[in-house]
Amino acid sequence: MAITTKTTSVRVASVMPDVAAETCPLCGTDDVRVEDVAWFAIEFERRSDVQDELDVPDAVVFLCRECGVNWD
After folding, report:
1. What domain of life (predicted)?
2. Reported confidence tier of residue 34, pLDDT bands at 50, 70, 90
3. Residue 12 and residue 62: Cα distance in Å, rounded?
4. What are the boundaries of each domain within the chain?
5. Greater pLDDT, 67 or 2
């Protein structure tokens, strides 16, 4: 199975049919990275208190390495 994007064709294993490559909406490159600020967990007694005070978005933010634009 091949998934075709604006600029590239990505080969996907048949065991993962729902995988898609993210492309930059501005320049069309697939050289993007993910910025996930909520990837860690606070492991101590006051976790709920501290976690509520943090302004952490639930969405994952994508960043383009070519042109620098970000989107979610």
Report:
1. Bacteria
2. confident
3. 21
4. 22-72
5. 67
